[in-house]
Amino acid sequence: MRRTVNVLLLLLAFIIATNAAAQTKFDTHDFSGIWGRFGSRAAETGVLFGGGCQECGDPGFGVNVPPLTPEGKAKFDANKPAYGRAVGSPVLPNEPFGRHRSVMSAQSNDPTMQCEPSGAPRIVLSTYFSPMEWVWGQDRVLQHFEWTNEWREIWIDGRQLPKEPDINRWYGFSVGRWDGDTFVVNSFGYDDRTWIDHFGFPHSDQMRLEERYKKIAPDKIELTMTIDDPKIYMKPYMSDRKVFRKLSKDEAVIDGWQQLTDDRCVPAEEFDFNKTVRDPAAGITH
């Protein structure tokens, strides 16, 4: 009898171990689906699922900002963000100094408030409040962002980045490749009117961006980014670690099917919002 019990226990342990192993196996190259960096708050730490804190919002590109060049400092000072803490507010630990430059929205010169494209990496960072979708083809990968309904092409057909583009682009020229289980995206040729993030950190037309995406669980992808832009920063600017969570089908279903919403920036609507909300809030009348 005892021997039978022992055999049953061993069999049960084997089944449990087998099921656990099956659950830990996943395709590290499968990024399909809808992903976001938002989620429930972790009450014990005050940290949001994708980063940030309960009362200060998303941390942007990264806390460890390199020293700015004179040109970089001039561009940084000229950018007036409406996101973050007010100008002159105290700097808290583990916060980028750019968070403390917020002005009233009507006084901001954030280009996205005029419906200009976010550019990269800023559109990638929008995933702290709005999801994105990966769409894989034979020769390219598409990143589809719900925020402003933007599509970004990443070519995987072996082509090289242009050395000196004739015309820079809002989302640059991007190529991707696999480095083991990490999908590496390199891009160049960006229009320098975009900001790196919502705190107004600038870049030049010489910015090179590298993104490294790695699937670390069936429903999680981590991302680290590096900006190399010697015209603006005295050394490479490395991002904080970002973690994306795959949305379940229930979370992604809208109007009966799984999709992203058509959340475009419509100039007429944006300008009307500026006139009726942002301007009055700053005491500006028309």
Provide a concise account of the structure shown:
By secondary structure, this protein is α+β, with helices and mostly antiparallel strands. About 20% of the residues lie in helices and about 25% in strands.
User: How would a crystallographer describe the biggest sheet?
Assistant: 10 strands, antiparallel
- Give the integer mean of the pLDDT values: 84
Beta-strand content bin = 15-25%
Q: Which regions have little confidence, pLDDT < 50, spanning 5+ residues?
A: 40-56
Number of domains: 1
What's the total count of β strands?
12
Helix content: 10-25%
Principal-axes geometry comes out as: globular
Order of helices and strands: HEHHEEEEEEEEEHEEH
Walk me through this protein's architecture.
This protein is of the alpha+beta class and 286 residues long. It has one domain. Helix content is 19%, strand content 23%. It has five helices and twelve strands. It has helices at 2-24, 70-78, 122-125, 249-252, 267-281; strands spanning 33-36, 132-136, 140-145, 150-155, 173-179, 182-188, 208-217, 220-228, 237-238, 242-246, 253-254, 257-258. Strands 1, 2, 3, 4, 5, 6, 7, 8, 9 and 10 form a ten-stranded antiparallel sheet that branches. Strands 11-12 form a two-stranded antiparallel sheet. Strand 8 and strand 9 (237-238) form a beta hairpin. The longest helix is centred in the N-terminal third of the chain and has 23 residues, at 2-24. It is globular. The termini are far apart. Residues 40-56 have low confidence and may be disordered.
